[in-house]
Design goal:
This protein folds into two domains: 201 residues, Rhopdopsin 7-helix transmembrane proteins, CATH 1.20.1070; 177 residues, Rossmann fold (3-Layer(aba) Sandwich). It contains 15 helices and seven strands. Helix 1 packs parallel to helix 8, helix 6 runs antiparallel to helix 7 and helix 7 runs antiparallel to helix 8.
Length: 386
Amino acid sequence: MDTLIITALRFINGVFTLAFFPNLYLIYRKTNKRFYLLWGIGFLFYGINVIIRTSILAFSLESMNVEVFSFMFMVIGLTLIITGIGDLINKTRLLLLASLSVPLALAVLYFTTRPMLLGQVIAFIPYVFIAVSLLIIRVYFSATIDFLVIGWIIIALSNIGYGFGLISPFYVEVYVILAKAILYYGSLYPRFSYLVDDLRRFLISGVPTQYFDNPGEKFVLINSTGKRSNEIRWLKNRIDDNSKKAIKTIMLTTYDLISLNDLRATDVDEENLYVVRMVQGGKSAFDIFTKHLIVINDDLNDLDILFMDILAFSSERKINCQIILYNLSSLIHTHGWKRVYTFLLSKISILKSSSVYLYAIYYPKTHEVESDIAKFEKLADNVIEI
């Protein structure tokens, strides 16, 4: 009777585990984020392992081949789940190698001396590793994965208890079913589908090597003489200096008047550099911090969206950002000084209360009416010459 109950519970456990795949795969189709695919397939293999173990328990299939077959599915499933965590924090290869070390150690133990105690310890290491990894991510990145952490901790503790004979198989199945119900609820939680994006945004913050002294000047105009070499040198120094202080530099170029290759020729530090090309017919893609080069349309409305995205990101993640506009004069010549002035005026108050700084290169001599460009100079916190 006890065997029949445990078989039924283990079957429910297997069904719960398999149920993750369609949900996670659906999220992957919507987001195209590899983490969800790795976890989906991982739970699929993990669930097949549980179903096979159910059959072994129900029909007393003691064949070594069946046990090894079941073991292989479990190893593949947990390896994919651990690799998925690695993908989540940009450590895919490292965690893949770490996860493969466990089945290798088990295989060595199984086919050689078979020390049971050590084998039992290694057998539940993957569960502990997953639980601890998620707990670290929860604490360090402030990620909304409480249900995942709780679920995997229960699974890890249940496997530890079973491995040392502290928990009977009946209660192990009950606890694991409860844990997977919590995990499944967590995977249905609306914020779960944004998990990868949230962590990606956090991971780009970088580590400063120099102290950042807030200058207090949120809008600075750069009066250029038009000498290209001076501009390139100033841009390189500014970008490199920002990178040392973990400041994200968004290089906003109008009409391809300067390119990334111009900066690369100076061996500029590109790690914290994001280039936005503002050109006619741009696709208006605003995933600014997921790619280092994007294109937006030559439209002040699109520029407004870009600014607001940067401001929102900086506020959420407490990250300093610096926008370098190359160049303001071309924007004024194309859209008229009134529209550009109105746009900047609407952003000044927001910039003042943010961690975003705007530096704009301009050429006073190219403007026929001096009073027009003088309005921008009065709007700026500072005007410097290069």
